[in-house]
């Protein structure tokens, strides 16, 4: 492998497709993420059945983001498909934009079905009232890239959700190499609030780790009623 991928410079998003043969989709895929959410189609979508336990296992600074890994026991059911919660990680600023506007941060709760398909619940993060769980994460996140370490027991992922679970749904990709087009995106319409001091603390480690928005190539974005 040559230069490693990053968010700017020689390994930046415009180069991801060239860095490794496995990354082809980053350059030529037609269902890439993130996108700007603009026109949407109101639709009767299944409710998001989130059954998340306090199953956070480890926390890691992987050189691209801060990520919390989950043990077995947390699921998402969407219609007839059941997914397991694998991890949550953070981007700054948000990767998805709404009408061209980004948010200070975005959380990605990554779930996987037995078939290998992914469903990612995206949560936009606005600055305002502190979120105790995000504060706890920021307080305990490793400052330097390194191995995963045990996370605080008791971290409650449910406390990083808005009250209403309305969502936008579209078919897309991982937003990092290899940009695989295997993701059912479920972006919550309502942001959560987090302390601006906590965003600032994350920004000290990762001032910019968002991929630019990609062409929608005529994809439809559905909005739950
Ligand atoms: C990411 O790396 O940002 C990512 C994943 C898995 C699903 C979606 C996504 O690792 O954006
Ligand atoms: Zn992500």
Distance between the termini: 46 Å
| Percentage of residues in DSSP E strands | 25-35%
Briefly note the structural class of the backbone: mainly beta
**What is the chain-wise order of helices and strands?**
HHEEEEEEEEEEHEEEEHE
State the helix count: 4
Q: Could you say which small molecules are bound to this protein?
A: 2,6-dihydroxybenzoic acid, zinc ion
Number of strands: 15
Detail the poorly predicted runs: none
The rough form would be described as: globular
Mean pLDDT: 97
Q: What does the radius of gyration come to? A: 17 Å
What's the short story on this structure?
With 225 residues, this protein is mainly beta. The protein is 12% helix and 33% strand. It is globular, with a radius of gyration of 17 Å.
How does this structure look, described?
With 225 residues, the protein is mainly beta. It contains four helices and 15 strands. The chain has helices at residues 16-19, 24-28, 132-140, 196-205, and strands at residues 36-37, 41-43, 49-51, 56-61, 66-70, 75-78, 81-91, 97-98, 105-113, 118-127, 149-150, 167-172, 183-188, 192-194, 222-224. Strands 2, 3, 4, 5, 6, 7, 9, 10, 11, 12, 13, 14 and 15 form a 13-stranded mixed β-sheet that branches. A two-stranded parallel ribbon has the order 1-8. The radius of gyration is 17 Å and the shape is globular. Zinc ion binds at residues 89, 91, 108, 175.
What are its keywords?
225 residues, mainly beta, 4 helices, 12% helix, binds 2,6-dihydroxybenzoic acid, binds zinc ion
